[in-house]
UniProtKB/TrEMBL annotation:
Membership in a protein family: Belongs to the BolA/IbaG family.
Annotated SUPFAM superfamilies: BolA-like
Source organism: Haloplanus aerogenes
InterPro entries assigned: BolA, BolA-like_sf, BolA/IbaG_stress_morph_reg
Lineage, opening ranks: Archaea, Methanobacteriati, Methanobacteriota, Stenosarchaea group, Halobacteria
Domain of life, per lineage: Archaea
UniProt signal peptide: none
Name of the molecule in the record: BolA family transcriptional regulator
Length: 89
């Protein structure tokens, strides 16, 4: 699974989502290419607690967290929060 596949799953699984997925670290021998980092922006996060926002992303990944993805770092934002705080918030 590559970053484009992960982005597609997130964007298809969360309404009006924009996902940017990268590989945040050098792959290790045991889990090569299985570590990802995502910034996800969606109005669907409005009024939703952070833990539930992250669960929405996991749900969008349709079980790949137990097969193709070893680790996922993520930041989730509403469009307004992203505009106000940017990716470093």
């Amino acid at each position: 699974m590559d970053t484009a596949d992960v982005e597609r799953l997130i964007e298809e699984g969360i309404e009006d989502a924009e996902a940017t997925v990268t590989k945040p670290r050098v792959p290790d021998e045991d889990h090569e290419d299985a570590h990802f980092a995502a910034v996800v922006i969606s109005p669907a996060f409005e009024g939703v607690p952070l833990v539930q926002q992250h669960q929405m992303v996991y749900d969008a990944l349709e079980g790949h967290m137990t097969t193709d993805i070893h680790a996922m770092e993520m930041k989730t934002y509403t469009p307004e929060a992203y505009e106000e705080h940017g990716p470093d918030a």
